[in-house]
What we know:
Structural class: alpha+beta
Order of helices and strands: EEHHHHHEEHHEEHHEHH
Largest sheet: 5 strands, antiparallel
Number of strands: 7
Amino acid sequence: MHHGENGGSAYYRPPSRPAPRPAPRPAPRPAPAPRPVPRLVPRPAPAVRPAPGPAPAPGQRPSPARWWPPPAPRYVAPPPKPRATASPQYVYVPQPRYYYYYSRRPTPVVVFTRPAFWSQSACVRNACEAQFHQCSSLYDGCACYPGLLQCAQSQCAVEYVAARDECNYALSQMPSCRLECAPKSYPLTTDANDDDGNSIVVSYNVMSSVRIQGATRATFAGSDDEFSQAIWAVLANTTWPNVSQVLLDDVLDVQIATSSSTTLPEGGAIVTATTTVLEIHFKVEVDSNATMHRVQQALEADMLRQNDTASVLATTLLDRGVLFNTTQLSMVYALTAIDVISTQGNEGWLALWIILASLVVVALLIGWRVMTRERSRRPEENLHLLQPST
C-alpha cells in the first residue's frame, strides 16, 4: 500500500493491455475434385485349353524328354488267361484215351522187312541188305527204311517199286516209330566221319499228338507255355535232365467221326456224325537214342493209366486252366523219330562252290588285265585308234 500526495490511499493498477486479436480462421479447404469413374473393361475370355493327348497304355509311363538315358520300362505282368469253360453246346463223346494203342499190337513193331521180300528181290538183297541190317542194329526200321529205298533207287531201279511196297506194308502195321517211305540217307554215324569223309549228324525226337474235346484253336491261343509245362511234368520223374526242349509243331481244328450217334440228312442216307476237336502236334527233342525211347514210353504210360485214373498231362492242364475236365484229353500217337541233319553228298556242293568261285576269279583277272592294257597305251596310239581308217 502506498500513500499518495493527497493523503489519500489508492491501489496501484497496472495499465491495461489491449485485448489480443482473435486468430484468423483458416481458409476453408477447397472441395476435392470428383474421382474419375473407371471405364468398364470387359473381362477377357478364358483361354481355350488344348485337348488332352491320348492316355498312355496301361503299365507304361511316358519317359520325360529331358531325361537321358530314359528310365527302364516297368514290367507289368499280363492279365491271367481266363480258365476254360464248357460251352452250352458241349457234348462229351467217349473216345479211346490212346487212339494209336488200340489200333496196333501191344509190342512195338521195329523190324518191317519180310523174308519173302529179300528172296524175291535179288538185286536189293545183294546191294542193300548188309547196309540195312547194319543200320537196324543201331536204330529201328523206321530210321533205316529211307536208306534202303535210296539204295534200291540208285542200284536196282527195277526192284525199287517192290521195296517201296514193302515200306507201305510196314506202315500199315502201325509201327511205334515214324516211318516215311521216301528215299533218304542212312543215319549210320553220329558226329563222326564215314568212309567218304562226310559228316552225318542225326537228331533224336519223339513226335506226339493229342486231342482235346470242347476246345478250339481260338480258345487254346495263348496256352502254349502251359501245355509245354504240362509235358515237362509228365517227364519230370524219368527223363527230364536229358530232354532239351518241347516244341509245338501245329495246332488245328479237325473233324472226327463219332461212333455214338448218327444223323439222317436230306438225301436219306445214314452217315456217321462228326464233331470238331482240337488237335495238337508237338515234338520232344532229346539227346540220345535211349532217352528217345524212354520219353516215348513215359508218354504212353501216362495216357494208359489204369482204374480210370486221370493222366498227369490232363491233370496239369486242368490245374492250369487249359481244360475244364480231364476227360477232354486223349492221345493220338507217340512215335520215335530219327532225322538226319547233314547227309552224304556234301562234297558235291563243295565242288560246285569251288567251281563258281574259280569262274569269278578268272573273270576279275581278265577285266583287270584289259583295264591295265588300256591305261598303258601311249596317247598317239589312242588317237590312231580313234581316227577312221582310209
